[in-house]
Task: structure prediction
Amino acid sequence: MRIMADHRALDALSDEIAACRACPRLVAWREEVATEKRAAFRDHEYWGRPVPGFGDPEARILVFGLAPAAHGANRTGRVFTGDRSGDWLYAALHRAGLANQAEAVSIDDGLRLRDTYVASAVRCAPPANAPTTAERDECLPFAIRELAFLDQVRVIVVLGGFAYAALCRVFAQIGVAVPRPRPKFAHGLEVPTERATILACFHPSQQNTFTGRLTEPMLDDVFARAIELADG
Result:
């Protein structure tokens, strides 16, 4: 019965996240984007709300990103869905055997994750993709509760320095020790903790993928290592 209870708890938390209106700047921006829309998506009905996590409730691997993209998850309603970052992420998860398909285009496209759950530090699309620290901290209780329900998680892949810093604050609030001084974010960094191993990865944003700072083999190596750590 514990598994079913956890599923229901995650569903209830997702509903609570989607109804949040705590940060006025983010509420205004996400709704403005959803109303004005991008020309390419003018016939789409935008989600325009906070975006819950998505994936396998029994996951041993958590992927933790920055925030929804204005015309990606803020449009589709599913994290990392409908934008270039998501194209890279879910293709890599598919190659690693953690997703049933490589494409993530809409909330009803049939995508399923295995042993993996995906969430973000901030649940609303922020202007210029840059949440404030106050907005980040307002959102962190959702991550704390999510992590409590995802009690099988053994590896947390943080996508970028913002997500890394946010996760370290989550750990501080739940009493999980992170080495001091805190290791500086770097691609491939591993930080063992009593709760889970933090595994750092450059964010699959166009700024990184277009410039070659992050390549497909680099991303594949991260998820191969995540599986290895989860199995260890």
